[in-house]
Amino acid sequence: DQQVKQNSPSLSVQEGRISILNCDYTNSMFDYFLWYKKYPAEGPTFLISISSIKDKNEDGRFTVFLNKSAKHLSLHIVPSQPGDSAVYFCAASEDNYGQNFVFGPGTRLSVLP
Amino acid sequence: DTGVSQNPRHKITKRGQNVTFRCDPISEHNRLYWYRQTLGQGPEFLTYFQNEAQLEKSRLLSDRFSAERPKGSFSTLEIQRTEQGDSAMYLCAGEGGPNEQFFGPGTRLTVL
């Protein structure tokens, strides 16, 4: 039973448009959420995080929105660039300790020029 | 480049053989994590070290798996009597603080 779900295995977006990657979770005790980006032949790299005391966190072109009541978070990338093409993993935890992070299966984003 | 290296990058072995992977985090990484990632899935936690002490093991880590981190620097993950189900990407990550996990490029294991 997956506690963190990313129901879209893939997403294609035109360069310059908005990319929206979604993540749903089942454990209401999750309080910390992270997004990682992974390029082929590389390990995941940390992108942005949010804790449950916030509903939005922004870093440049990347914004994460959290809806705790719906157990849903989303990552918005605007404007999307071809270099954003990668697999994006959502991860969640009850605390902020790495051993407790549960990762989703990932969404492959393709930004088309 | 996160500064975390893993060797080898690829390993092909026959079922029943033993394999060992190495992870070199940067010196500031007090915590070191091992994850396994199978096709179509996200990373799954295996075990972690705080300096040289192995503090937690996932139930995924069967008794055929052993990990060490002598002197709190590099770490090794050994799989004995490999099975085809062990085929996966093995990732290690160093952590200097909360939310600061830096993953290595991974070792892809294929068990024939």
Topology diagram in text:
The complex is a heterodimer of chains A (113) and B (112).
Chain A: E1 4-5, E2 10-14, E3 19-25, E4 32-38, E5 45-51, E6 56-59, E7 62-67, E8 72-77, E9 86-93, E10 102-103, E11 107-112
Parallel strand pairs in A: 2-11
Antiparallel strand pairs in A: 1-3, 3-8, 4-5, 4-9, 6-7, 7-8, 9-10, 9-11
Chain B: E1 5-7, E2 10-13, E3 19-24, E4 31-37, E5 44-50, E6 53-57, E7 65-68, E8 75-79, E9 88-95, E10 101-103, E11 107-111
Parallel strand pairs in B: 2-11
Antiparallel strand pairs in B: 1-3, 3-8, 4-5, 4-9, 5-6, 7-8, 9-10, 9-11
Search tags:
heterodimer; A: 113 residues; mainly beta; six-stranded mixed beta sheet; five-stranded antiparallel beta sheet; 53% strand; globular; B: 112 residues; seven-stranded mixed beta sheet; four-stranded antiparallel beta sheet; 11 strands; 0% helix
Entry summary:
By secondary structure, chain A is mostly beta strands. Chain A has strands at 4-5, 10-14, 19-25, 32-38, 45-51, 56-59, 62-67, 72-77, 86-93, 102-103, 107-112.
